[in-house]
Amino acid sequence: MPEFFNVLPPDEALAKLFEHLTSTPQPETIHVADGLDRVTTESIRASVSIPSFPRSTMDGYAVNARDTFGASQTLPTYLSLIGEVPMGAAPNFDLKPTQAALVHTGGMIPKGADAVVMIEVTQRIRENEIEVLKAVAPNENVLQIGDDIGEGGEVVSAGHILRAQDLGGLAALGITQIKVARKPRIALLATGDEVVAPESEISLGQIRDVNSYSVAGQIVRAGGVPVRCGIAPDQFDQLKSKAAQALSDADALVLSAGSSVSARDMTADVIHQLGKPGILVHGVAVKPGKPTILAVANGKPVIGLPGNPVSAMVCAELFVVPTIYRLLGCKTPPTNRSVNLRVTHNIASQAGRVDYVPARIIQRDGEDWVEPIFGKSNQIFTLIFADGMIIIGRDSNGMQSGEVAEVRLF
Amino acid sequence: MPEFFNVLPPDEALAKLFEHLTSTPQPETIHVADGLDRVTTESIRASVSIPSFPRSTMDGYAVNARDTFGASQTLPTYLSLIGEVPMGAAPNFDLKPTQAALVHTGGMIPKGADAVVMIEVTQRIRENEIEVLKAVAPNENVLQIGDDIGEGGEVVSAGHILRAQDLGGLAALGITQIKVARKPRIALLATGDEVVAPESEISLGQIRDVNSYSVAGQIVRAGGVPVRCGIAPDQFDQLKSKAAQALSDADALVLSAGSSVSARDMTADVIHQLGKPGILVHGVAVKPGKPTILAVANGKPVIGLPGNPVSAMVCAELFVVPTIYRLLGCKTPPTNRSVNLRVTHNIASQAGRVDYVPARIIQRDGEDWVEPIFGKSNQIFTLIFADGMIIIGRDSNGMQSGEVAEVRLF
């Protein structure tokens, strides 16, 4: 239908918003132990080499490799055992030709040695002498200085989401204080005369606030801090003052608009008056979620989500989540897993818009299929009973039962 | 090689540990706003129906559907407009035949009405009269009581990891206090005379503690609380007393053993003495990670990881992470995403064990390939430079370049 041709596709809408977001992430310093899933604001390089000394990778004897050349079961080499390398300290001796020293996995290779013979291919024949039953090559079973990372090597780049192993690598280097992007505070303001807080008893005609909880979950997952600012009535001055207050205390504002056209129009007017340049996108070619508003008010993003809970979550995923990654300076935001499965039912759609249909994965003859959960966009439970969303692209007029669909998993 | 045939495959090892874990998750009550990623300890059902009143899904007029039958552009039906349904309250009128009332999206359907005519197919012809240009069927554009969820319907089952939409659904029902599994406290004790805290300057022969940070990250990701208990020297009594203390304050203990055989043997002796039944599994058919120990001490799991950082992370993923989900009572633990890609190099392996090889994804002629990062299991940076791990199954003797491998992404 023509209605979707005069609004922007979601990727173009997001690009338009991002054009006006020029702020850089604000760094804060944290301990590496608290670093999981935080986003670095600068490249971190190794200040030292690891290992910082040559280390044995085996339990065995440190030797000069050349002393073992030709050694075999039938013709062993004999070396004099001059000591044991203590764990956690440098040996207090150097190795001379035809000498060997006991060394444990992770122990330091003494000066003069260049390889380790595994204990399994040796025999202790007396107090201070060993038989070597197999030759080793130079460097065998030895980790050299810098073999793990060399001094100056980049550990992680700026804009990287820290993983468990990154924390370990930083600890290995003695880097315990790291700079990461401060978590953006995302103000959440619900609107609508019919909306009451979840704690409230409801009267006929009222519903409880869903979006301040579901969208908050999406914000947390993306690395933001949701700041619930309550519920504003469908009254221009009150909504405007609440919205301005919410935005001034946060890095971004997400409004979920009232569901009626007049309430939505009022929300749009309020958003446009919050600051310059105001509304950049009004309406996106997405179902559900067409009435989404993207705006920037004095450098801060303001996103007006549709009030219906399903639309709100779809559009939060499309616009709020990427905006948080943008505020964090994250270079490669993670994406949800997708699978391609046959659909169990025909699904109607219209060219010109992207459709998101809640769906569950079912088994049919031992194969995974995806079953659409048809419902209205105000039925939050369609998402609760779903495993993901079928995505029907802009060029499609719908899907036939048995066709393969892309399913974005939750 | 025979060495891997006298140790258990990872799944059997884990099953043996789980046989001895009989405790049930301890519930705590939290606010729904804090519920993301927490695991429910009981089934939660709807105490009311949603919606709790018939609601309009459109902006339009509430009508008796039968009054509109036959209405068309050329032959409109005329209805008398008796009022407007306020948002957030019940209308103070009932509808009689041939009457209509203005209703907004989300507004309550007045008694006597059974459908909503979209505003777009109507015309207001005078103050109190409208023209209806298209018929509606009974129930059209109306969400009935319980259409989202009916009273008594299950919202989430016990052992469910709460997602963003679940929080919204609970809020919709007015369920703000929920019972979730208390996060298990996982004590982490590093051992080894050569290991020092990351804050310390290191001398020759020393290395900084990696595992207490990398494995801690894995614990957080799985929903546990890591409790770092420091570093114990390779000294039996000190290690035993530190381990016993750590376990008594936690729900589980994870030790990362010293890297030498003698240090590992000592760790095994300590673990076995912590409580009954003691060690259940000593050695698993995994590379890296063969020396892993699984034990239960008086009902609490104790896991001895190999000291090398790569082995420690591989085995934490195989044993610590599933144990945390078990302690949480999580019914379907999430799994990491896998992809199947061609390998760029031959990879040696041995039948009888599962191999995990750090690997990065690269582009070759516009296609994704996976490139193994060869290194020793004490090179934590092999994991930092990796995108995931190639998994080579028990029955395989290795992979040829160009063969398709399973890659478990981080």
Could you explain how this protein is built, in words?
Chain A is an alpha/beta fold. The first copy, chain A, is 20% helix and 32% strand. In chain A, strands 7-4-6-5-9-8 form a six-stranded mixed sheet. Chain A has a six-stranded mixed sheet with strand order 16-13-17-21-20-18, sandwiched between helices. In chain A, 53% of the residues are buried. At the A-B interface, helix 3, strand 14, strand 15, helix 4 and helix 6 of A face helix 3, strand 14, strand 15, helix 4 and helix 6 of B.
Which features does this protein show?
4 domains, alpha/beta, Molybdopterin biosynthesis moeA protein, domain 3, elongated, Molybdopterin biosynthesis moea protein, domain 2, homodimer, 410 residues, Molybdenum Cofactor Biosythetic Enzyme, Chain A
User: Which second-level CATH architecture of the largest domain in chain A applies?
Assistant: 3-Layer(aba) Sandwich
Helical/strand content category of chain A: alpha/beta
What percentage of amino acids of chain A are in beta strands?
Answer: 25-35%
Biggest sheet of chain A: strands, sense, closure? 6 strands, mixed
Helix proportion of chain A: 10-25%
Low-confidence runs of chain A: none
CATH C-level class of the largest domain in chain A is Alpha Beta
Count of spatially separate domains of chain A: 4
CATH fold-level assignment of the largest domain in chain A = Molybdenum Cofactor Biosythetic Enzyme, Chain A
How would you classify the quaternary structure? homodimer
